[in-house]
Design brief:
Blueprint: H1 2-11, H2 21-36, H3 41-58, H4 67-80, H5 97-104, H6 110-113, H7 128-138, E1 150-156, H8 159-165, E2 180-187, H9 199-217, E3 220-226, H10 231-240, E4 247-257, H11 272-275, H12 282-294
Antiparallel strand pairs: 1-2, 2-4, 3-4
Helix pairs in contact: 1-2, 1-3, 2-3, 2-4, 3-4, 7-9
Length: 295
């Protein structure tokens, strides 16, 4: 969270000079402690890179660095000394509008219109490498403070998939034909404030949609299986699947290859004109009513 706070501050048009001093100090102290506890080296490298850029960006001008920054440099050098190259893992990077538009260019919006919920799968299994590739692409999903709370539990077709599907109401007649059943979860330990009590559903839902589109880009079919259940059903799944107590189940996803031809539901969509609405403030409405009353 703190690493991303620094990165966000460095990515705005005009960062406030020496913004977030307390956050930077806390991040360096926590990184030092985390490193001594055998923490993830890339997490430490990311934090170190962000702090390094923070200092370099603020000391690139003629003004001398404050004393607290000079002391921080010494501590930062100690931490960074055993981490190796950190530059590509944290801080900011420059991209161009041209590169974004070129990579994001689709011939048409048919990519979205040809995504269907698939309930008729081919027998040929989806490989583990393909699943990892889709998950890697879905990792680009934004999350609150870049916490990436999601996990994907994979159950292959057969006894394992059938066991978890037995707890889900909505896969009758096709679930058993999927190559794999994925259970998407979020780690509740990554949310710390009462106002974040629903954030896992948001981040997890966004990741799930990214994952669906990633599989679509690979030519692999999916069907979202909701997990709108009571506590007893959730506990039933956990009695079967080894899902840690600190992970909340967001949804299941049936994954499989597409046959040559297959039926899909037409699924009428609401017209976009019904969905896109001009935003109004209550003050605007009140003034409009008052104006109407005087005319």
């Amino acid at each position: 969270m703190d690493t991303h706070r620094i990165e966000k501050g460095l990515a705005v048009p005009k960062p406030r000079p020496w913004f977030g001093r307390s956050i930077v100090n806390r991040l360096l102290a926590n990184t030092t402690t985390y490193l001594t506890l055998g923490g993830d080296l890339n997490v430490c490298r990311s934090a170190t890179a962000a702090i390094t850029e923070y200092i370099e960006r603020h000391t690139s001008g003629p003004d001398a660095a404050p004393l607290w920054v000079q002391r921080m440099r010494v501590d930062l050098a100690t931490v960074a000394g055993g981490l190796g190259s950190c530059d590509s893992l944290g801080g900011t990077r420059i991209i161009s509008r041209e590169s974004v538009l070129k990579a994001a260019k689709l011939d048409s919006l048919d990519f979205f219109f040809t995504r269907h919920s698939i309930r008729h799968f081919d027998d040929d299994p989806v490989t583990w490498e393909e699943i990892e590739s889709a998950v890697e692409a879905a990792q680009s999903t934004p999350s609150v403070c870049n916490r990436q709370s999601w996990s994907v539990h994979v159950y292959p077709r057969g006894d394992a998939a059938d066991a978890v599907l037995a707890t889900q109401n909505g896969n009758a007649g096709f679930g058993h034909t999927a190559s794999q059943i994925l259970v998407i979860t979020v780690d509740l330990r990554t949310f710390v404030y009462v106002g974040e009590r629903n954030q896992g559903w948001i981040d997890g839902g966004m990741f799930a949609m990214s994952l669906v589109y990633a599989f679509h880009a690979l030519g692999i079919g999916t069907c979202c299986l909701n997990w709108s259940v009571d506590r007893q059903t959730d506990q039933q799944l956990r009695s079967i699947a080894a899902i840690p107590d600190h992970e909340s189940v967001i949804m299941m996803l049936a994954v499989g290859r597409l046959p040559e031809t297959l039926p899909v539901a037409r699924s009428l969509r609401r017209p976009s004109a019904e969905l896109v609405k001009p935003g109004h403030l209550w003050a605007d409405t009140t003034q409009a009513r008052a104006g109407g009353a005087t005319r």
